[in-house]
Amino acid sequence: MTRPTLSVIILNWNGRPYLEACLVSLEAQTLAPDRIILVDNGSSDGSVAFVRERFPLVSIRENGGNLGFAAGNNTALRDEASGIVVLLNPDVVLSPDALSTMVAAMTADATIGVIGCKLWYPGGELIQHAGGHITHPQALPRHDGIGERDEGQYEVARDVEYVIGAAAALRVSMLDQIGLMDEGFFLYFEDVDLCTRAHQAGYRVVYLPQATAIHVESATAVRGSFAYLQRFHAGRWRYLLKHFPAEEMAGPTLAAEADWLDRLAGPERRAVSLAYLTTMRHLPAIWAAREKEGGGPVSPEVQTAVASGLASLHARATHFSAEQPALLAAAAELRERPFTSSVPVLGPLLARLRAAWNNVASRWYLNHLMIQQSEFNRLAAREIERYEIELHEQMVLLEEQIVQTTELQRQIESLEAGLAQLQHDAAGSSIAHEHNPTAQ
User: Fold this and answer.
1) Please, which residues bridge with residue 372 across strands?
2) How many Å is the Cα radius of gyration of the chain?
3) CB 3.0 to 4.6 Å from 250: which of 219, 305, 315, 436, for a disulfide?
4) pLDDT at 133 over 80
């Protein structure tokens, strides 16, 4: 059986510290890929220059800005003519047989559409990913084996709900059938969505433990940051609304989300609040994507219930706890420390001594005020710093949306130019036919 051609796509955004180890591991593969493409999402850390100098055989595609995981990979996938393509994060180091193992499994079984590796945390002792599943009713992802010491408990290949896109092999003919990644996902859940669509088309999604790799995980996206949480929860809700049963998302999902939201701390609540707002603004596009490649159309009543529920969740998320402001207000109020003495006032001499002592003690009293003021300043500084970080990350999110909008505009202009050319060609053909009616 002829081996299908193999391409590896590495989507990079400021991953310079990890690229050398990643690309060296590709050079060490027992099955060399036919082509390696570095897709750069507007890095500013010298990644592209480094790869050009150190790995000249790597093809480079520069997107000019951070398009996100789905749209960034799609710029290369659109032109992919190989039989199999492996998506690889720059912070992944493949074991030498990883590519050959995935290609062999996919070649032997035409029903396999997606294969995922066993991923370890750095050190290679703790499992990070051995397949995954989505929980109900909130679409929270769960990685099988996460954090467990690898003692061979996940050594059997099996069909799974999804594998993550950090190191995954895709059958290109499957992509021709189901379409590329959904660019409505910026980062997170686009791989889960692709696996779900593969299942819907009758393809298998397989966890293959003999293909292994080390994954730093979130090397270029700070886990727990405002931007990370906003992207994660916006992706979660897009996936949920695309694929969950209508009766579930309009009922149990909204109820569980409200209960869960009340237990979140302030920073994550703010990120989730923005994710709800993002989801509400994109509802028409999400319903269209669901009808085209998800769970099918939903009734106007369900759409109304979901929109109303999201609005209620957004209002609930923006009603923040008064605990931190109360702490600041308490620290800002300078409280008098009353002077006390156990010495009774027995005469003028003792009264003067007491007055002198009070004067000395006043220095201690001022010290007490200074301590209070310092504590208030520290609390205020921490709050200001946190809000400044969140504001910066919100600006980053806005800039990413501007880049995405610019890319969409470029695609629209390209399509319009193509349409104009087709119309011009059709008009020319019609004129030629009029002048020569017998022409075939």
Assistant:
1) none
2) 30
3) 305
4) yes
Tokens representing residue 49 in the block: 């220059």
Phi, psi of 287 (to 5 degrees): -65, -40
The Cα–Cα gap between 92 and 219 comes to 10
Q: Using the predicted structure, report yes or no on whether residue 370 has a pLDDT greater than 80.
A: no
**299 contacts: CB under 8 Å, gap ≥ 6:** 246
37 forms beta bridges with 9, 59
pTM of the model: 0.76
Among 282, 278, 275, 289, residue whose Cα is nearest residue 232 = 275
Task: Look at phi and psi of residue 328 and say left if phi exceeds 0, alpha if psi is from -120 to 50, else beta.
Answer: alpha
Secondary element (H or E) of residue 173:
helix 172-178
How many angstroms separate the CA atoms of 411 and 405, rounded? 10
- For 308-330, what is each residue's pLDDT tens digit? 999 999 999 886 555 555 665 66
Alpha carbons 266 and 272: distance in angstroms, whole number: 10
Cα–Cα distance for residue pair 293/193, rounded to 1 Å: 10
Buried b / exposed e along 166-201 (16+ C-beta atoms within 10 A) = bbbbbbbebbeebebbbbbbbbbbbbbbbbbbbbee
Query: Contact 138/240 with Cβ under 8 angstroms?
Result: yes
SS3 of residue 384 by DSSP = helix
- Intra-chain end-to-end CA distance of the chain, in Å: 44
β-pair type (35-40, 59-62): parallel
Q: What is the DSSP letter of 2?
A: P
Q: CA–CA distance from 337 to each of 56, 209, 357, 365, 367 (Å)?
A: 73, 67, 15, 7, 11
Neighbours of 73 (CB within 10 A): 28
How far apart CA 244 and CA 240 sit, in angstroms, is 5
For each of the domains in the chain, give its residue range(s) and CATH number, in order of start.
6-215 (3.90.550.60), 226-317 (no CATH)
What tokens appear for 313 in the block?
């969740």
Q: Which token pair is 205?
A: 């999604």
- Using a pLDDT cut of 90, give the percent of the chain over it: 65
Backbone angles phi, psi at 123, to 5 degrees: 110, -25
Residue 223 one-letter amino acid: R
SS3 102: helix
Torsion of CA 286, 177, 103, 48, to 10 degrees: -60
Strands 127-129 vs 204-215: parallel, antiparallel or unpaired: unpaired
